[in-house]
Amino acid sequence: MAITVLIPTPLRNLTGENDTVDGSGATIAELFANLEQAHPGIGERLCDEAGEIRRFVNVYLNQEDIRFIDGKDTAVNDGDEVSIVPAIAGG
Amino acid sequence: MGGSTKFFTALRGRESGREYPINEVRYVCEFDFGPLEVKYDYDAIKAALSREVIQSRAPNMWRYKELLPIEGPVTVGKDVGFTPLIKAKRLAERLGVTGELWIKNDTVNYPTLSFKDRVVSVALSRSIELGYKTVACASTGNLANSVAANAAAAGLECYVFIPHDLEPGKVLGSQVFGAHVVPIDGPYDKVNRLSSEIADKYKWAFANVNLRPYYSEGSKTMGFEIAEQLGWKLPDNVVVPMASGSLLGKVEKAFKELKLLGLVDDHHTKTYGAQAEGCGPIVEAVKKGTDLIRPVETPNTIVKSLAIGNPADGFYASRGIQDSGGFAENPTDPETVEGIQMLAECEGVFAETAGGVTVAAAKRMFESGKLDRSECTVLCITGNGLKTKECLEGQYTSHTAIQPNLKAFDVLYDEVLGTSKGNVGEPALT
Q: What is the mean pLDDT of chain B?
């Protein structure tokens, strides 16, 4: 059982229009690196040159914002659901 | 005033620097989802603008037109802005300020008595340029009032989306203009999210969503006016209430642009933010000295106008405050009410809860020394008190009616009024 990754609309052109893909990795950082292998181009949309997750990309591990867990070093396990959600501007 | 496109040239990703054409409706960078900001040609603006040119224009926000992102003449909100800047001598005394204290009084902004008319004037004028016939917004109250009023005057169809528990005055203040008012069973952040989805699907011009890059620029005019009204000078400190954090950032940007254009002398202004204790995510970050904004899931405060748990410009506001050497405070609701009363009793200005929280935050910071009492400080008071009357419930009791004769008044005066014994109608503070 892999890690389920939910892909937002603006990034689906990089995942063959799939809204969900399977991923693997021990941490979010590893998961994203593996996603880049499988879907070239997605890596730079999620992380900047320094490897930090972009400010306006929200990542949720089982509904929890990873910023309040361990950021990109947050541990992930098989069966987890990771959701990538662009930040909403407004207000 | 006619105009051309030569003063603003692109929409630029704030994080990525990527540029997009101004004739396409876009508010988020496609690459990294960061917000877009209007890019100006400051050389062209510098050639066109001088203090004399600005001073020769009518007393409204569009005297700074070259620094605002519309291409042609103003179509919505010609008379907005240029509200009074009041020297607050009595409030200064009350707060122990020995320098200068000024109130930028947007409680009387035209037409809907809040600073929102500034941003809406830009957003709706630009919406018309982009061909929209229906405008909308997600709002904690003042924005809805402004969009509804300005849309009515411009003959645009209008939908406003609000949390269901807003103050009745604010709800009526949108309904009266004939707008469709849609209450949402949820806090503002859910209203905002839904608005993005509606904007996407229905192709309406949401002032603070898909028109946001243009909309937000209108806030700069509060800063321009402050500087002009101080005699083309920048204050030492400015205190700004924060909902999304956009206003604070744009006041900073206004001061920066004036310096860049040589319209004011170089002077450093420290920015200070104000939020409510019951919803102060940006203040919390400033107090911790971090950039990480922890969203407030369930805002709980009478300051409903600032009750945004996940502020879109929170990071930028927090950074701006900290980089400037300023600070931020999040007073309690009782302190906020006291702030409203102090401002009203000392300066005759009746502000809404966001104004009260700004005064209360300033009071805390003067007391803690974070704000220097000997310096020149401006408080941005952003909305009128009649819109949030509920917060003053129970604060005052009226005298029983007296008989319409002189003797009856003599008695009342001798026993109650003249002696200042009764607290009926008396100031709540000593």
A: 95
- pLDDT, residue A5, reads 97
- Looking at the domain that runs over A3-86, which CATH code has it been given? 3.10.20.30
Domain coordinates of chain B in residue numbers? 5-78+116-215, 85-113+219-392, 403-430
Residue of B nearest to A57 (CA): B33
Residue B111's identity, in one-letter code, is P
Q: What's the mean pLDDT in B53-66?
A: 98
User: Nearest CA to B273 among B189, B375, B365?
Assistant: B365
CATH domain B85-113+219-392 topology:
Rossmann fold (3.40.50)
Centre a 10 Å sphere on the Cβ of residue A10 and count the other Cβ atoms it contains.
14
Kindly report the number of other CB atoms within 10 A of residue B331's CB atom: 27
Q: What is the pLDDT of residues A39-85, one digit of tens each?
A: 999 999 999 999 999 999 999 999 898 988 999 999 999 999 999 98
Judge: B15–A68 Cβ closer than 8 Å, yes or no: no
* Cα dihedral across residues B352, B357, B363, B366: positive or negative: negative
Where would I find the H helices in B157-280? 168-175, 188-202, 212-217, 220-229, 246-260
Q: What angle do CA A79, A82, A87 make, to 5 degrees?
A: 165
Chain B contact for A54 (CB, 8 A cutoff) = yes
CATH code that applies to domain B5-78+116-215: 3.40.50.1100
Measure CB to CB from residue A56 to each of B15, B193, B292 and give the nearest one.
B15
Q: Side chain identity at B246, as an amino acid letter? A: S
Q: How confident is the model at residue B429 (pLDDT cuts 50, 70, 90)?
A: low
Given a contact cutoff of 8 angstroms between Cβ atoms, the answer to whether A46 and A69 are in contact is no
The ipTM of this complex is 0.88
As a whole number of Å, the CA-based R_g of chain A is 12
Residue of A nearest to B29 (CA): A56
Q: Tell whether B7 is within 8 A of chain A (Cβ).
A: no
Q: Counting Cβ atoms within 10 Å, is residue B96 exposed (0-12), middle (13-18) or buried (19+)? A: exposed
